[in-house]
Amino acid sequence: MESIARLTSFAVSLLFLLSCLSFTxxxxxxxxDPTGNITIKWDVMSWTPDGYVAVxxxxxxxxxxxxxxxxxxxxxxxxxxxxxxxxxxAQTTEQGDCSRFKGNVPHCCKKDPTVVDLLPxxxxxxQIANCCKGGVLNSWVQDPANxxxxxxxxxxxxxxxxxxVKLPKNFTLKAPGPGYTxxxxxxxxxTKFITADKRRxxxxxxxxxxxxxxxxxxxxxxxxxxxxxxxxYNDTIVNCPTCTxxxxxxxxxxxxxxxxxxxxxxxxxxxxxxxxxxxxxVQCTSHMCPVRIHWHVKINYKEYWRVKxxxxxxxxxxxxxxWNLVAQHPxxxxxxxxxxxxxxxxxxxxGLNDTAMMWGVKFYNDFLNEAGPLGNVQSELxxxxxxxxxxxxxxxxxxxxxxxxxxxCVMPPPDSYPWLPNAGPPKMASLLRLAMTVLASFVFLVxxx
Length: 449
Known about the structure:
single chain, mainly beta, Immunoglobulin-like, 3 domains, elongated
């Protein structure tokens, strides 16, 4: 029996090891957006005496996750000794050592160049279509017209035919920090282009794709947002869990958070530190999160019920432009009206309509200001009741999950949700039962003493 147990244990361990090895580092699965990714397409448009000219385009095929300021950074490693003679619509961050060249000096000679987008307002002779947005790349659902970013690159010391060109390796994409993992470049069918008059079709000489997928764990080890709850039928406001995104430092000199009533607030959030938006400077709260989403069950009608959703920015270093919110609730299949937000149903699985994507109305509330009086946006949702499922019991009226800008927000524990007046909370009910049991035992002992 002991040998059988050891054999079974070995088999389980082996299966676990094989299952771990079966997933590559490029795989990151999002249940709400199972096919979402950023695809980088290289189209070789012409050959040059020592290389080629290509147009590189990044397509954001993610439904609700976007790249915000200060924008994307793309990197790779050349397969041979290639150099970049020139670029249009983007630039490398370093030129590298080009001392071996006499006369014309390449734009970049590094083995592993790093490319960034140009800023809006770039001179026209340095622009191509879909360039010069400061690296901002909007999501496919929210703003498909701005979900692509392109640049042109002239590569030298490279192959001059389909058979001699070597594909770049080790692609990296930062947006602007970590989170994306890119797979190897793969040669695909050459891209075809239709002329403006739609009477002629041309095609690239050679095309390869790189696919990058996102992992929140790689992007941020700690949460970036949290959810609080309240309802009309209970005075309790369930706040975000304590220390959700960090804990307040006991040191009075710490810059981990800012008291909004502090007399030196202006100096604390200004200066050179404010430009470092990757390091949040948040308002002092119990949860210490840069963003909080509040879900309030507001009104109960005969045929409908109403919810108020508020988003508050506690970060003094960050404005959220083109923000979005994704929420899961079983009653979204009967959403009747939404006020002051845009809305689209996300249906990653056929027949299941429980996920909604919401974002601000352009020029009205699509810009979420940094912490302060204006750092808040809100809307109301009106649901039609489905008598077969609707209830206010056991926290049914509250969302199952909420995402802000693609990051999963921390929910309060289920046993803390607001309860109906005629039903005590689980903890109080348990304490009451315990007290009644103790009292009954005491009365029994006294009666038969």
